[in-house]
Design a protein that fits this description.
- By secondary structure, the chain is α/β, with parallel strands linked by helices.
- The chain has one domain (20-404): Metallo-dependent phosphatases (Purple Acid Phosphatase, chain A, domain 2, 4-Layer Sandwich).
- The chain has eight helices and 20 strands.
- The chain has helices at 20-27, 69-74, 112-115, 163-168, 185-198, 237-248, 285-295, 377-389, and strands at residues 35-39, 81-91, 119-124, 173-175, 202-204, 211-215, 218-226, 232-233, 253-259, 276-277, 280-281, 299-303, 311-314, 317-320, 325-328, 340-349, 354-365, 369-372, 396-397, 403-404.
- Strands 1, 6, 7, 8, 9, 12, 13 and 14 form an eight-stranded mixed β-sheet that branches. Strands 2, 3, 4, 5, 15, 16, 17 and 18 form an eight-stranded mixed β-sheet that branches. Strands 10-11 form a two-stranded antiparallel sheet.
- A hairpin with a 4-residue loop joins strand 16 and strand 17.
- Helix 6 (237-248) packs parallel to helix 7.
- The longest helix has 14 residues, at 185-198.
- The radius of gyration is 20 Å and the shape is globular.
């Protein structure tokens, strides 16, 4: 599409990408082997309860900030570390007419090496389903008014066979806690989960779901949160913290994906407080991220605003508030800020302490394919946003993409 469609529960509304407040910034600094152990509620069926309030055991307090990566690397001689990679929003096509050629076989070819890690994760922002006959978007009025109104609803799907495309790119865990997971109803969501499972991929994000994988002998719990009833709530902070505490009793490391915040080219800044968008409560990203770290999360990965946001270290744990768009084939705008993305790569010790990390710059090229970004726009963007929004805790990003705590 020419524009990046913002999303809400019933649909999306296109936003103006030329935001006056960002023009100056864009013109200057912005151009520049996992094994599944358990997945609670992973067989969620239509009509099944969409909530969970588990009893949890208390979690010990986390240590303070980690030492610098150099010192951390020197202290990782025991080898009990695991590398992870994560991306923002992934849309591989808009069936029936907007699918890549060749069954999307080469969809991730340009970025496959950048994704490589012991555990690869992504936010799957669409169902992998056949046409279920259920579409959240109402039919257009007939006859259409003149001039025709801007589209306000968007539904994306790719064939179930595309799960193999994700597998072949190295992905192991896909987050389904987002507003497009039910674009084609409960049946579309069921087909998505079935397709991922058939491809030996793990999904997470259903209410109460704790997906546990084992990597290099280390158990890792991956949880997904958004503001929609088919997912664990990002708005209910206390319930989110309780689920993280429960996950911490099942795994050495806990990774949280949060689909949170308002969206659009002018929504790059993260601020304290609840974000509303199109009448929806999209959560308080800072409050939620800090709460889940307090509860035991070792890494927090944000997505949802369709643009990148800053990163910070909180109690020694890295929080990436939004990784932006990674792929949006004939679905998302690849121009301007919505086209800028990145692969987050992090290495943690078994106790959750930070060893090293980096941001690998990517961007979308026509018509929404993921590609490496020689201009490295993500680095200057996230660096500037961290300085502006998180001056005390924002990360330091080197010219090579390295992520370090502030001194």
């Amino acid at each position: 599409m020419a524009d990046d469609p913002p999303r809400n529960r019933p649909g999306r509304t296109r936003t103006n990408l030329l935001v006056v407040g960002l023009i100056g910034l864009l013109a200057t600094s912005l151009i520049t082997g996992a094994t599944v152990l358990a997945s609670q509620n992973s067989d969620l069926k239509a009509g099944a309860p969409l909530w969970s309030t588990p009893k949890v055991a208390p979690t010990p307090a986390l240590p303070g900030p980690s030492p610098s990566p150099t010192a951390a690397q020197a202290g990782a001689a025991d080898g009990e570390t695991v590398s992870m990679s994560a991306t923002g929003d992934i849309i591989m096509g808009a069936a029936p007419g907007g699918l890549p050629p060749g069954g999307a076989k080469d969809f991730f070819a340009d970025v496959k090496s950048a994704l490589r890690a012991d555990l690869q994760m992504g936010n799957l922002e669409q169902p992998l389903t056949n046409d279920t006959g259920v579409d959240k978007c109402p039919p257009p009025p007939s006859p259409p008014p003149s001039p025709p109104p801007k589209a306000t609803c968007f539904a994306f799907r790719s064939p179930p066979a595309y799960a193999a495309v994700l597998r072949d790119a190295g992905f192991k865990v896909l987050n389904l806690a987002n507003n497009h997971a039910y674009d084609f109803g409960a049946e579309g969501n069921r087909q998505t989960r079935s397709a991922l499972e058939a491809a030996a991929l793990v999904h997470t994000g259903a209410p109460g779901q704790i997906a546990v994988v084992e990597v290099k002998g280390i158990k890792i719990a991956v949880l997904g949160f958004s503001s929609y009833p088919w997912s664990q709530s990002v708005v209910d902070v206390n319930a989110g913290a309780a689920l993280v505490k429960r996950a911490k009793t099942q795994a050495a490391l806990v990774v949280v994906h949060m689909h949170v915040g308002a969206e659009g080219a002018d929504k790059t800044h993260v601020r304290p407080g609840t974000e509303m968008f199109l009448g929806e409560n999209r959560g308080d990203s800072i409050k939620f991220a800090h709460a889940v770290v307090d509860a035991g999360a070792d890494l927090v990965i944000g997505h949802g605003p369709h643009v990148m946001r800053g990163m910070e270290f909180y109690r020694g744990r890295l929080i990436a508030y939004s990784l932006g768009n990674f792929a949006g084939y004939k679905a998302l705008s690849y121009n301007g800020l919505p086209g800028v993305g990145g692969v987050l790569k992090v290495t943690l010790r078994k106790d959750g302490s930070y060893v090293e990390g980096s941001l690998v710059p990517t961007h979308m090229v026509a018509p929404g394919l993921p590609a490496m970004d020689p201009a490295k726009q993500a680095l200057s963007l996230v660096r500037g946003l961290g300085d502006a929004d998180l001056p005390a805790s924002g990360v330091r990003i080197g010219d090579n993409g390295s992520i370090r705590p502030r001194p």
